[in-house]
Amino acid sequence: MYAFPEAEPYRIKVVEPLKLTTRAQREEILKRGHYNVFNVPAEDVYVDLLTDSGTSAMSQDQWAGIMVGDESYASCRNWFHLLETIQDITGFKYVIPTHQGARRKAS
Fold first, then answer.
1. HEC states along 40-58?
2. I need a labelling partner for 85 at 20 to 30 A (CA). Which of 40, 44, 57, 92 fits?
3. Is 19 in a helix, a strand, or coil?
4. 3-state DSSP call for residue 11?
5. How many helices (H) and strands (E) does the chain have?
6. Closest Cα partner for 22 from 44, 51, 50?
7. What 3-state class would DSSP assign to 94?
């Protein structure tokens, strides 16, 4: 008898439709990008095995955090919370936050 997996203990809050492509279309997309996945437009990606961006729904607490977060200035309360948390976890005195960056379109 087949055992079904247990249901996930949460409700998905947001879904986004994705574009489905045929194998031939995917091959053409890769060819246009010179077989470099960094040159493949995000809208042409159905399953992203390269990054962790957009791979799951956010929880209601994560969405709420975006709404109440203060990112108004470099010395906002969220910066100090981040600084104290990283210092507490790592023991490092100095913290230099860096953004993961944005993908630039190849010329």
1. CCHHHCCCCCCCCCCCCCC
2. 57
3. coil
4. coil
5. 3, 0
6. 44
7. coil
Q: Tell me: pLDDT of 50 over 70.
A: yes
User: Is residue 27 pLDDT above 60, yes or no?
Assistant: yes
Please tell me the distance from the alpha carbon of residue 105 to that of residue 53, in angstroms, as a whole number: 17
C-alpha dihedral over 82, 85, 86, 90, to 10 degrees?
Answer: 180
CA pseudo-torsion sign 49, 52, 54, 60: positive
Cβ(106)–Cβ(39) below 8 Å: yes
DSSP-based three-state secondary structure for 55: coil
**Residue 40 burial (CB count, 10 A):** 19
Three-state DSSP at 39 gives helix
pLDDT value for 65: 84
The Cα–Cα gap between 35 and 27 comes to: 9
